[in-house]
Amino acid sequence: MQIKRFITTCIFLCCAFVLSAQLTYGTTGLLHAPSAEMQKDKTIMLGANFMNKEITPPTWYYHTYNYYLNVTFFPWLEVAYTCTLFKAEALGLKPYGYSGFTNQDRYFSVRLRALKEGQFWKYMPAVVLGTSDPFTSSGGGVVGSSSGNGYFSRFYIAATKHLPIGTEEIGVHLSYLYNQRKDYKLNGIAAGITYNPSFAPDLRVIAEYDSKDFALGATYLLFNHLHAQVELQKMKYFTGGLMFRFTLK
User: Fold this and answer.
1) Hey, what's the signal peptide range on this chain (predicted)?
2) 246 φ, ψ to 5°?
3) Which CATH superfamily is domain 2-247 in?
């Protein structure tokens, strides 16, 4: 069993060069957990993902897809708009002649950088406050809904510090997440480690705990602007996608 898992992991990491991906929420971060890293201001990201049902709220009892637009307006402000597809059968629309993906859940995410890494002290981590899907208009308007719409609701504070180790560098990420969801609790500490090897600077390997599950993944920069990312949620369930990133001058 250990040999099989080792071989699977090696194949998975090697495939980072050709498989596709970007982050679940369409925001800067790790795989599913947040970080305090920020994009350069005026950066725009467009992406789409295949999402395994193991990484989505229970409402999605089937594999699905999402797509998003992300804009970093200032070095300290990032906003994303994410859409996750629903199947007609799950919405009870099959008797009306609908089938397949016919509707979508839509939500905003916002990230605010409170502290820049090394801002006042060389060992100071970057700190970001963020939220995803914080508000739903259902039920007269609810912030941090516990049921119904607001499936991806979460609030968090994240810290990130990059540490040199010889000629290499690793990123250490720690965050605290909170939501009120009864069906998709994300409450507690999340943590992760990132590694960009000097021999392959466009490759980034990520290991994380998102307050609920462990995950392993990697991102790779293709053709200057196109990023691919793969993830194994719970160390075995595949999620992946592509993201196109560019910066306005």
Assistant:
1) 1-21
2) -150, 160
3) monomeric porin ompg (2.40.160.40)
73 vs 71: CA distance, rounded Å: 6
Domain boundaries, the chain: 2-247
Is 152 strand, coil or helix? Answer: coil
Query: Percent of the chain scored above 70 by pLDDT?
Result: 90
Is the per-residue pLDDT at 2 higher than 60? no
In the block, tokens 């920020």 appear at 38
User: Running DSSP on this structure, what letter comes out for residue 40?
Assistant: P
Q: What is the rounded CA–CA span in Å between residue 194 and residue 192?
A: 7
| pLDDT tens by residue, 125-153 | 999 999 999 988 776 778 888 888 899 99
What is the per-residue pLDDT for 23? 60
Give the other-Cβ count within 10 Å of 174's Cβ. Answer: 18
